[in-house]
Amino acid sequence: MVVEAAGSNDGVMIAAQGLTKRFGDLTAVDHIELEIRRGEIFGLLGPNGAGKTTTISMLITIRPITEGRATVNGYDVARQPAKVRASCGIVFQEPSIDTALTARENLELHARLYGVPKAIRRERIEELLALVDLKDREDSVVKTFSGGMKRRLEIARGLLHHPPVIFLDEPTLGLDPQTRQHIWDYIERLRREMRTTFVLTTHYMEEADRLCDRIAIIDRGKIVALGTPKELKDSLGGDTVVLTMKEPPLEAFRALSFVSKVDVRDGAVWLSMERATSNLAHVIQAAGGREIATVEVRRPTLEDVFIRLTGRAIRQAEEGGGEGWFGAAMQYTASTNR
Fold first, then answer.
1. 144: number of CA atoms within 13 Å, CB side?
2. pTM metric for this prediction
3. C-alpha distances in angstroms, 136 versus 139, 140, 143, 303, 324?
């Protein structure tokens, strides 16, 4: 069952205009404007409490919108929630497959729940078991699977009804590097062969850099940066030189014409600058003979962008966890069933 769009314009699969969510006096999401195109892999990054989970929870209809409007696959999130849900595949961070069933039984159950016609159900299951390399374990009980195998089955289940939009919450969290690479390959293959649109959250910056066509960084309920990984990295203004030294002459560094920003963090001085290799001698001269313990020259990374915009490293921002989409879904379901 391929879900048809309700008339998305120019390939826009997700659109938000003034999207806002309030909890009493707290504004968790503050008038977000967003367009995500068909076949795009889009990353949404942000610290805990920034509004990232709430934004996605509204888009997948598990939290009501306070103000503004959003569409997914051309369907209005507030007025057509059933059609939005049918248009989406969702892979939660927390495991949600039934470990007492086999891989095939899990997919069969999901296919029935999503109304995949019986005539094509078996073919679709075979197709996805092969896609995620679980064909030889289709009749094994899921509790015997490794973490990577369970994750691949979760992805297969999310794809089973051929949704045009897939939401992935930390798709490779806790997986070994080889399995993470396999899942990246699956995502890119689906985008290439089926023009599937992906929206993912991740705290692995290399994952966002490798996979995402564009990335939005959200903080305090607002999108504070939006662009391709290259555009975001280039926005820092060149290279970074990290100096470990006592009593650094910060004003002398700031006076250098090729230095755009001087930060002190983690016991080191971070200089954003142009042409670090050719200008490094001038930096050392500006140190005025003070002893420099270590010097590191590095190209900007997405982690650097995140720190510049939010004041924290992504892993620090994620410490303590959060309720995640699955928790929000359970909370919303419980509240609506009272």
1. 9
2. 0.77
3. 8, 9, 16, 39, 32
The CATH H-level (homologous superfamily) assignment of domain 9-231+316-336 is P-loop containing nucleotide triphosphate hydrolases (3.40.50.300)
Domain extents in the chain:
9-231+316-336, 237-299
**Is the CB of residue 318 less than 8 Å from the CB of residue 48?**
yes
CATH architecture type of domain 237-299: 2-Layer Sandwich (3.30)
Q: Is 320 left (phi over 0), alpha (psi -120 to 50) or beta?
A: left
For residue 137, the 8-state DSSP code is G
Sequential pLDDT tens for the chain (338 residues)? 445 555 455 589 999 999 999 999 999 999 999 999 999 999 999 888 889 889 999 999 999 999 999 999 999 999 999 999 989 988 887 778 999 999 999 999 999 988 899 889 999 999 889 878 899 999 999 999 988 888 889 888 988 888 899 999 888 877 778 878 878 888 898 888 889 999 999 888 899 999 999 999 999 999 999 999 999 988 877 888 999 999 999 999 999 999 988 999 888 999 988 888 889 999 999 999 999 999 999 888 898 888 888 877 665 555 444 455 555 554 433 333 33
Angle, CA of 17, 22 and 26, to the nearest 5°: 130
The crossing angle, in degrees rounded to 10, of helices 118-131 and 103-113 is 140
Instruction: Please choose, from the candidates 193, 196, 235, the residue with its C-alpha nearest in 3D space to the C-alpha of residue 213.
Output: 196
Domains 9-231+316-336 and 237-299 share a fold: no
Which residue bears the tokens 């369970």?
Answer: 150
Residue 152, C-beta contacts closer than 8 angstroms, at least 6 positions apart: 132, 133, 134, 179, 182, 183, 186
Which of 216, 233, 220, 214 minimizes the C-alpha distance to 37?
Answer: 214
In the sheet with 67-72, reading across from the earlier edge strand, the strands are 26-37, 12-23, 67-72, 75-76
